[in-house]
Amino acid sequence: MADVLSVIPASVLRNLSDKLYEKRKNAALEIEGIVRQLASSGDHEKISALINLLAMEFAYSPQANHRKGGLIGLAAATVGLTSEASQHLEQIVPPVLSSFSDQDSRVRYYACEALYNIAKVVRGDFIIFFNQIFNALCKLSADSDVNVQSAAHLLDRLVKDIVTECDQFSIEEFIPLLRERMNVLNPYVRQFLVGWITVLDSVPDIDMLGFLPDFLDGLFNMLSDSSREIRQQADSALSEFLQEIKNSPSVDYGRMTEILVQRAAAPDEFTRLTAITWINEFVKLGGDLLFPYYVDILGAILPCISDKEEKIRVVARETNEALRAIEANPTENFDVGAVLSIARRQLDSEWEATRIEALNWISTLLNRYRAEVFCFLNDIFDTLLKALSDSSDEVVLRVLDIHASMAQDPLHFHQLVVFLMHNFWVDRSLLERRGAFIIRRLCVLLDAERVFRELSTILEGEADLDFACVMVQALNLILLTSSELSELRELLKQSLVNAAGKDLFISFYASWCHSPMAIISLCLLAQTYQHACDVIQSLVEEDINSKFLVQLDKLIRLLETPIFAYLRLQLLEPRRYIWLLKALYGLLMVLPQQSAAFKILRRRLKTVPSNSVNGDQLKRASSGIAYSQILHHSGSKITEDGDMDQDNGNLQNGIEFASLQQFKQMQQQHHMLAKSRAQLRDRSTSLSKDGPKSRTPTNSNIRDKEASFKMI
User: Fold this and answer.
1) Could you count the other beta carbons within 10 Å of the beta carbon of residue 694?
2) pLDDT tens figures, 407-462
3) Nearest to 581 by CA among 558, 554, 606, 616
4) pLDDT value at position 252?
5) DSSP assigned state of 86
6) Residue 550 needs a FRET pair 20 to 30 A away by CA distance; which of 94, 330, 463, 544 works?
7) pTM above 0.85, yes or no
8) Basic and acidic residues bias located where (predicted)?
């Protein structure tokens, strides 16, 4: 210490701690000269002692003016050392760095000034302190004092210049420091960080792209900053990196994809758009390399397809199509089950477009990997059935297309129809709202006759008689009105002369017996008019209720449509179609006279040529004598109205109705059920006076029913 004091005059030390800046500056200039002389003589021991004195007695002093003097003195000593300063940096820099966190803003300001001057002298040699300097500058960039911020910015620019020209900079050591600070919210710090990322990325020898996953999330986080300038800087940096990715032969998509998937669901629109744009480029560039991340990407894309921002929707759809165009091999990191799981979850989305695209994915997977998809059928089947209740017609159409594709196999066809019936049973509103729509579409996709035969077979053994009756009435209305079933109707019209028509009629008959109105409609369609008369005459009081009359009203109106034009034309020949005439008069007698249907049918019957009807024929028809015995025409016999057999009584194509036993037995079951309910209603005191409540299945009924609908 004595040697150092002998070198530095006491007046210099006194002025170095003066409150006036000019005196401290003059003292610093004298120290610079002293150090220069010592350096020229090679007396580094005294130089070291002098630097130690400036650090311990001044830079670390509790007195603010002493600290200011110490900082300017250390900078002056460095200037005096010039090219030999690097060997003393271990003594010079730490006190300056320590002053960056000083409570006095002026001390912090002079610390910036001191380090600036030191850096100008040593340039690349002080790179060994880069991480500490970066950490200090990061804090100073958000300093509360404007002057300190300005000084820090000047120092920051100099440090950037030094780093870009220095070949000793270690990016590997710097990245952890950068990563730690990327989620800071302070706008000044964010600007500071983006500035450094941009500068380092511009250096050819520094591979920032390789470390992009370490700070990519932070950059995306800045896209939602309240400051427009920060958003623009972050977006500019991201755009530059994306361009580099396009030009790079090797990219680590994995970690970045995970970040992008998360950011695609960000609340901020600009962040979502940028993330989905990046994913779009990744899909185009990565191709097969993205198989391990296929599921994550799909999970991010599907919700964006319904985004409220049009730009996001457009990019998401483009990305979705590009992803679907990649045909993967299930044995090569492509998990069909996981993709199906994502699509299944998205079927619960509130947005129609997302649900539709999820169904498109299931359809695509089914077409490409049918065997693999069937392995996961139990996981998606229930969800697909529930989707039939979707509010969107487009969604229901896609679901039906998928079901139809799976039902190409007979086993899955039966399974589909069974579960569809179960869904109708559980949710009657589905049958009311979408039943006709669903069944008609399945008829188009899977052959109408096949669908109706399967439905009829299941309904024939249905235990819930009320449901069977409602279901048959619905099927009957579809059969009579849907354009998709025109061929089926034509086949049924030939039931008396065509073996295929007869077989179809018989396959429907048993289940149609659940509803008197349905069986009458079927007989009129199949032109089995005599049996229609028998059914009408067998009706009892329990059959003719309000529901029956509503169904009858619909039928009478349908008789006036083009579908039954053939029947109306047959009325021009009442001699030949005596049973038809009797059946229609029977329906007329059932209808209330004041009803609109009664008036419609009566007007129609008034147009029948009355002089063509033989009274004797009507009498014998009314007595129940077979119509084949009424008309004698060249020895031919007739099984039903207008069906003459020229082979002397050969009835092999005729339908034998020995009695109404099957229809009566079925109706007897319905009557017994109605009576038991009436008795129960009379005994019960808990039910309301308005009568029975809705037939919505109870939980216990559903459990019993579900037991009968098991997967095959």
Assistant:
1) 6
2) 888 888 988 899 899 989 988 888 998 899 999 999 999 999 999 999 999 998 88
3) 606
4) 83
5) G
6) 463
7) no
8) 702-712
